[in-house]
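Translate sequence into structure tokens.
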Amino acid sequence: MNRTRYQFRDGDLLRNNHTGALRQVQGEEFTKRFMDAQDHEMAAHGMGHLAGSYGGALRTLPLDDIDSLFGQGVYTVKTSDIRRRWSNLTALAERHEESINEAS
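Result follows.
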């Protein structure tokens, strides 16, 4: 049917569309409170209950960090940023395999 999967699953392989960096999804999508500099300032002045914005997030593990630029560990990334700037190689491979099976 050639449907693209838009949900991210544990173990999905992601590639950055600009840099070619590789990451692996760790776990499932969850909701996170994201705060920028202005939000931290609001919290410091007693308005923390109004600060930040909530959105979907994923934990990702850098796979090609040869020079340890990122350090070691898992990074939390906004799901919207991943959908915009990263390709889900696992979902693309599944789609390709499905189209081959349909052609047979």
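Note: The chain has a mean pLDDT of 86.
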